[in-house]
Specification:
By secondary structure, the chain is α/β, with parallel strands linked by helices. Helix content is 40%, strand content 15%. Helix 1 packs across helix 2 and helix 3 runs parallel beside helix 4.
């Protein structure tokens, strides 16, 4: 996987026909990609015509997505989901926020969206209080606000209309059960990129709770790994070199999961009886799982976190607020060596490893 995507600067405004930032920039210099782009634009036009038969003529609404790590490769399929839904429904979007999980920068982006009269705002609510003010101001201005990928705790004062994303605590709890079963006893490193942030802290809490409830003789060491992929990988490797008696290494975010997988491969940890796992479908993580270098990763379907959020925004606008909003759980699926092959064999927008629009034909039985 190309880790230099972490350092790329996001474009401030993204039309629905553009490739998500961080994917196609180098390839767009070739004639083949130029041809693909032309085909893509033609596909967008066909989709727009199809949508016009389903809904009356409507404004070309602009939806603003405020993200906490705009250049993180995890969100490439999310941006494809946003772009596809906007192309289907005849809308546009803006991708903005922070590259380093800075809540103040995200709040500034929300305020700019309000001032710019956005038609709807979606935000990763990674802080329990920071977004209350801009959410209130947006709603007062008639701008609906949705949470995606990260949500405020139950009972929060934030008035966002709905959350679209994984049940984060439950995902962490299920991972904790798997850890207790795999490791049995001994020291376990549990990595978290940015402690306290609501896109990953609930997973961390769920994993700890499940391990504690298991009654297994497992000691958890909590390690903060940082907000960027390169930093996360370095932190995991440094931890292992200083703690070679560890029995398991697990992470609750995608970048650190990649760090766990690379560390286990580099030092041959599976042969030493060390277990590992984490979250998300970064290509290198999947390759290393297929090689038996790590036990599992968990899919939370980032494409749907973009696509479904646009659908909710659109239907809210089209119905005058009568339809929705509704919380949507985008799911939890363990991917291990036995189930990873289809992810590696197929390059799609749905997983973020291809920009091509296509219909993928499934083969074989369907697993839940």
């Amino acid at each position: 996987m190309d880790l230099d995507r972490d350092q790329q600067t996001p474009s401030e405004t993204v039309e629905e026909s553009a490739a998500p930032q961080g994917l196609q920039r180098r390839g767009m210099l070739t004639g083949a990609i130029a041809g693909s782009a032309a085909a893509l634009l033609a596909g967008v036009a066909r989709q727009a015509r199809a949508a016009s038969t389903a809904f009356p003529e409507h404004p070309r609404w602009k939806f603003v997505f405020v993200n906490h790590v705009t250049t993180n490769p995890f969100f490439v399929p999310t941006q494809y989901g946003i772009a596809d839904a906007c192309a289907l429904l005849g809308c546009t979007y803006q991708w903005t926020g922070s590259q380093t999980s800075d809540a103040a920068q995200m709040v500034n982006s929300m305020n700019a969206a309000i001032a710019g009269k956005a038609d709807a705002i979606a935000a990763c609510l990674v802080d329990p209080k920071a977004f209350d003010g801009p959410t209130d101001r947006a709603l007062a201005a008639g701008i609906p606000v949705f949470a995606y990928n990260a949500d405020v705790p139950l009972g929060s004062s934030n008035k966002r209309l709905a959350y679209i994303g994984q049940d984060l605590y439950q995902a962490g709890y299920q991972m904790g059960l798997r850890i207790a079963d795999e490791v049995g006893s001994g020291k376990v490193a549990l990595f978290i990129a940015t402690p306290g942030q609501l896109n990953i802290q609930p997973r961390f809490d769920g994993a700890k709770a499940a391990i504690a409830k298991s009654g297994k003789d497992i000691t958890i060491e909590e390690i903060a790994s940082g907000p960027t992929v390169n930093e996360e990988i370095s932190k995991v490797k440094a931890y292992y070199l200083g703690h070679q008696d560890v029995k398991g290494m697990y992470a609750v975010d995608g970048g650190t999961t990649l760090g766990v997988a690379e560390t286990m491969a580099q030092y041959g940890l599976v042969a030493k009886g060390v277990h590992g796992g984490g979250f998300d479908l970064l290509p290198k993580t999947l390759e290393l799982i297929s090689q038996g270098q790590m036990d599992f990763t968990i899919d939370q379907q980032p494409y749907l976190q973009g696509f479904y959020t646009v659908l909710e925004m659109f239907l809210f606008k089209a119905s005058g607020g009568l339809v929705g909003p509704a919380d949507i759980n985008t799911g939890l699926k363990f991917i291990n060596k036995d189930g990873v092959k289809p992810y590696l064999a197929t390059k799609t927008r749905y997983e973020g490893n291809s920009g091509q629009q296509q219909i993928v034909t499934s083969s074989g039985p369907i697993s839940g």
